[in-house]
Amino acid sequence: MIDSLLTAVVTLVVLAAGFSAYKTRAIEQAYPNIGELTDIGGYRLNAVHLPRPATADLPALVFIHGASGNLRDQFEAFAAPLGGRAEMLFVDRPGHGYSERGTAENAFPSGQADAIARLMDKRGIKSAIIIGHSFGGAIAAAFGMRHPEKTKGLLFLAPATHPWPGGVDWYYTLAAMPVLGWLFTHLFVIPIGLRRVETGTLSIFRPNTRPADYIMKTAPELVLRPHTFRHNATDVVNLLAYVSVHAPRYSEIKAPTVIITGDSDDIVLEELHSRGLARDIAGAELVTIRNLGHKPDYVTTDVAIAAMERLAGQPRDLQTMATQAESRIASPDSEISGRESSSQAVTTS
């Protein structure tokens, strides 16, 4: 009886692990690497680097994606609307997308900020406007503190930067555990996660509409790969303690700063994080958009690009643009969306 039960358990484990390995290969075949790996000192970071064009009117731009993401997320939001205007670097954070994890320091925003700084050096980017979405906001803040000489400006999009009440979802805690985490990520994450990609991405955009091609273009399934999911979980689990220690130091940031947030963000509470940044960083401009959720990069792309222009020294009335964005959001049938109207940011003042 015991032998039969043990055989059944072993068989199920082997089948589950085999299915996860098979689906991992299938996911990577469906979403191959669109970037280039660069050795930054013992491990490699992956990035899409668009060199400075002759028509550039903006400084270099470095984009940092959030939790559970990869470089495709910010690439799809900004590469086309900003084409011909700036040198751009879209980074897979350490352990995400196709980047290697690297050293133990990369389990924290400070280590990832240092890694991105080294990548900039390798790519010949002396300084840039740093754009961080969600979890990427904590890394952008760390970058501004640790590498001020490389920071032309900081743009925070729905950032996660301050302590919050409560903890994190149970599956992150479990996935980050040494032994149980390995079993969980290799046996259960892919079969469970594949069924939640649709609802999960819809919730990230809520109450706004997710683009119909968002999953196909941004490859969120990449995070379901066992090693990637464990790195992602470790990042998330470590974040609360990290920001609890480092948030009081945000006053050290001297770079020009803009924060764009929505008052309907159920993923990262704007009253804690975005308002906290506006309070802590002298001179920061807070742009709060009504009825906007967690994806200002997609829903109000034009406002985000105008903020980059503002950080580059160009006159832009971001509060007026936020009001215009609110009108679009309130009229979902309007033919003009934030992404389609992003070119307006070039001339709006």
List the helices and strands in order: HEEEHEHEHEHHHHHHEHEHHH
Instruction: Count up the helices.
Output: 14
Uncertain residue segments: 341-349
By DSSP, the count of extended strands is 8
The largest β sheet comes out as: 8 strands, mixed
Strand content: 5-15%
Task: Supply Rg.
Answer: 20 Å
Query: What characteristic shape results from the CA principal axes?
Result: globular
List keywords for this structure.
single chain; 349 residues; alpha/beta; 8-stranded mixed sheet; 14 helices; 8 strands; 12% strand; globular
Descriptive account of the structure:
This protein is of the alpha/beta class and 349 residues long. The protein contains 14 helices and eight strands. The chain has helices at 2-30, 71-78, 109-122, 135-146, 170-175, 180-187, 189-193, 197-205, 214-218, 226-246, 274-280, 296-299, 301-311, 318-330, and strands at residues 36-39, 44-50, 61-64, 88-91, 128-133, 151-157, 257-262, 285-289. α3 (109-122) crosses α4 (135-146) and α13 runs antiparallel to α14 (318-330). The longest helix is centred in the N-terminal third of the chain and has 29 residues, at 2-30.
List the helices and strands and how they pair.
Elements: H1 2-30, E1 36-39, E2 44-50, E3 61-64, H2 71-78, E4 88-91, H3 109-122, E5 128-133, H4 135-146, E6 151-157, H5 170-175, H6 180-187, H7 189-193, H8 197-205, H9 214-218, H10 226-246, E7 257-262, H11 274-280, E8 285-289, H12 296-299, H13 301-311, H14 318-330
Parallel strand pairs: 3-4, 3-5, 5-6, 6-7, 7-8
Antiparallel strand pairs: 1-2, 2-4
